[in-house]
Design goal:
The complex is a heterodimer of chains A (318) and B (249). Chain A is mainly alpha-helical and 318 residues long. Chain A is built from 14 helices and no strands. Chain A has one domain. The chains are: A mainly alpha (318), B alpha/beta (249).
């Protein structure tokens, strides 16, 4: 994936990064392995948001609803339904995708910021239901100690599982963005009216994109269950959604791997800054202001512009 | 090919288009002229489905298309360009046109074939016909205004239309660019056999390329006829051309 964006040097960097990620459990203490898992799955969440935000131009402000839906879907299937993990692991994201479909159909009637506001409201409704429904979801306690099959129960194996699934999901999303569907989606982002005038059913495309994004956010949620063995209502609270939007913006929301990089930056900073001060949100705010002023296309967007002056990838002839 | 009957559109009590009538035969170039605010662009928006008319009918190829959504009208092979440049800013010139070709071929639901393997030939042909092939890798946001207006037309051609609507194709263009654009429009009409409906403020251009002219004033059609009839019509002169000696030219 990296190779397409950054050329040959990028390809080498990509391979080195993959090797590093692969051997991480051998060289790093457990805490860092756990952190890497969280970065990977949160990065998947941010990438799925960027699928509709950066490539689709849809202001999905409350994307974590689908993350939470995936996680709760998986967790409830295991604890209440007694369904084996592997089936639950698919079912969680499917639940998230269905929720994405329903919310998409409702919200897509509005555009831009109005979409975002309605989406935050509907998402908060889902949060309240999960927060209050003690008998089913465990309310504000969440669900703890979800047992995993032996094969992925250890920290290292959970990490490898997360790495594997995230990479596959990223690859699938990358293919989708480069497909005709992705081209049309980017056309809609740039100019919805023009898109309709060349024969694209704009709303249907947006709903489809929102469903896909919901699914992959759900996968990220299910991965969280695997890594942390818990779910809690904060996973669908709107502040986390906002943080996810910031991850996309910091990393570069017109680049494919930007959100992943943004996630790594934000989570690493949060972890280290929190050891010195409780005012993490203040630091985050300052970072956001700096990014908007100095890196309007995000960190990876900035690097990309520096590396190849042309803003876009060259088109291969014939 | 296209028939517009008594079309009316009101915005908060303001009659933008009232009683507009128009008919265009296959292979013709028809111009719509009228002073600023006469409702030309609104008329085009009504024909292409971006706005829904309050009353009246739009009949295209014998089929009533009044009130259909734009993407369905487009699939009946009607395409348009816009007055304000309306291209896909972050895509390259090539991608801009390819998206239109993909949409025409109904491939936009395809999730897994890479786009860059599809329709390279068709896209290149369109870019060649409008003369943008050298700039195909440029980001469309970086093109000059004239080139972007041409790209507009290229995107419209991506839908392989039979009927093309151009909303002020030469607005803001330099004289050279305008000349190039006139050649392009003539080429489209003569070589590709497209039926063209356009509106324009440049009277020289209108009289040079249009077969027939429709004049709109305050939302209503006053006359539709050949260039000479329009030039000599007293109501048109009063409303628009101003002086009455134009006929003796």
């Amino acid at each position: 994936m990296k190779k397409d964006i950054l050329g040959r040097k990028g390809r080498i960097a990509g391979i080195l990064l993959l090797l590093f990620l692969f051997f991480l459990p051998f060289i790093a203490p457990r805490f860092y392995v756990y952190m890497a898992s969280i970065i990977l799955l949160t990065g998947l969440l941010a990438t799925s948001l960027n699928f509709v935000l950066g490539y689709g131009g849809v202001f999905q402000f409350h994307h974590c609803v689908f993350y939470g839906a995936g996680a709760y879907g998986t967790a409830l299937m295991i604890t209440k339904g007694g369904v084996p993990l592997w089936i639950s692991f698919i079912a969680g994201p499917v639940v998230a995708a269905l929720l994405g479909l329903v919310m998409g159909i409702i919200c897509v009637r509005l555009s831009k910021l109005y979409f975002g506001m309605l989406q935050i409201s509907l998402g908060s409704l889902v949060w309240v239901i999960i927060y209050r429904w003690y008998s089913f979801t465990g309310g504000d306690d969440g669900i703890h100690g979800i047992t995993m099959p032996d094969i992925i129960s250890s920290y290292n194996n959970a990490y490898y599982f997360t790495l594997f699934v995230s990479l596959i999901c990223l690859f699938i999303m990358y293919r989708m963005i480069k497909s005709p569907f992705g081209s049309a989606l980017q056309g809609i982002r740039d100019n919805p009216i023009r898109s309709e005038m060349i024969g694209i059913n704009v709303r249907r495309h947006q709903v489809m994109a929102l469903t896909i994004a919901g699914f992959f956010a759900g996968v990220a949620g299910a991965l969280f269950v695997v890594v942390d063995n818990t779910v809690f209502p904060d996973m669908l609270f709107w502040t986390l959604s906002l943080e996810t939007v910031i991850m996309c913006l910091v990393g570069g929301w017109f680049t494919f791997l930007g959100p992943m990089l943004g996630t790594a930056i934000i989570i690493a900073l949060r972890t280290f800054v929190s050891t010195y001060t409780v005012y993490w949100a203040l630091v985050l705010g300052i970072i956001m202001v700096l990014v908007i002023f100095f890196l309007p296309t995000g960190v990876l967007g900035f690097i990309e512009e520096k590396l190849n002056k042309k803003m876009i990838e060259p088109v291969i002839e014939e | 090919m296209l028939e517009v009957k008594a079309l009316t559109k009101t915005f908060d009590g303001f009659k933008a288009v009232s009683d507009a009538n128009l008919h265009v035969k296959k292979g013709e170039i028809v111009a719509v002229i009228g002073p600023n605010g006469a409702g030309k662009t609104t008329l085009f928006n009504l024909i292409t489905g971006i706005l829904k008319p309050d009353s009246g009918q739009v009949i295209f190829k014998g089929e009533n298309i009044t009130g259909l959504p734009p993407y369905e009208i487009c699939r009946k092979r009607m395409a348009r360009s816009f007055q304000v440049v309306n291209v896909f800013q972050r895509l390259s010139v090539f991608e801009n046109v390819r998206v239109a070709v993909l949409a025409r071929m109904g491939k936009t639901g395809n999730l897994f074939t890479p786009s860059k393997k599809l329709f390279n030939k068709e896209t290149k042909e369109i870019l060649e016909s409008v003369g943008l092939v050298k700039k195909k890798n440029h980001a469309s946001a970086l093109l000059s205004h004239g080139d972007r207006k041409v790209l507009e037309i290229a995107i419209a051609l991506g839908g392989d239309p039979e009927f093309l609507i151009l909303d002020e194709p030469t607005a803001g263009m330099s004289p050279e660019e305008t000349a190039r654009c006139i050649d392009l429009v003539k080429h489209l009409s003569e070589k590709l056999g497209l039926t063209i409906l356009f509106c324009e403020h440049d009277m020289e251009l209108v009289f040079a390329i249009a077969n027939r002219i429709m004049v709109m004033v305050r939302g209503a059609t006053i006359i539709q006829g050949c260039c000479e009839d329009v030039r000599c019509n007293q109501a048109v002169q009063d409303a628009y051309l101003g002086r009455s000696d134009t006929c003796s030219m």
